Amino acid sequence: MHVEFLIEDASGKAFLERIIPLIIGNNDVTYRIHGYRGIGRIPPGLASRIDPSKRIILDQLPRILAGYGKTPYIDAVVVIIDNDNRDCTAFLAELNRLARHAAPMLRVLFRLAIEEMEAWYFGDIEAVRAAYNNVNTAVVRSYTQDSICGTWERMADAITPGGSSRVISQGWPASGILKAEWAENIPPHMDVERNTSPSFKKLRDGVRALISA
Asked: Do 7 and 64 touch, CB atoms closer than 8 A?
């Protein structure tokens, strides 16, 4: 079986490169992971009109899925994006409608990080503590798992000197560099079985169900 994984940014790709092997285990599965340069939006009329070289995932998704649907030996596609502040049910319905329109015969699994991928780090705080000294316990205790609260900022407050306010004051691309650092340092310590994030569990269990079907 071959699966293509799509995720909205480079730090997400780095995360998946370390986590997907732990989720899949020793199953006879091949896969590739593709990182994009932002989330964008589902295009009106479900037709990609943006330059493909810009690599914005939602803008390009109808074209990408249509291409995969015509490509031999691709058995499934998993698309992973941040929910941000969208209504999950409505957003997933829209994404699934897009997939049915673009590639009706292709198996496509959508998974959302609630609110952002950093929620999955909070779901395994032992891994965060293994990667970083002096984790701010008060910040960790005040976080409600998979809540809409400015998740990456909360993670910065928990583990970065000066917290999110210092990162934000530095402007672009400080936050992106920091997220890339987290994606390198935290996942090697993560245990996919102990993660308490509901959205991470849906990713883990969804991928496992997909490859075992």
From this structure: no
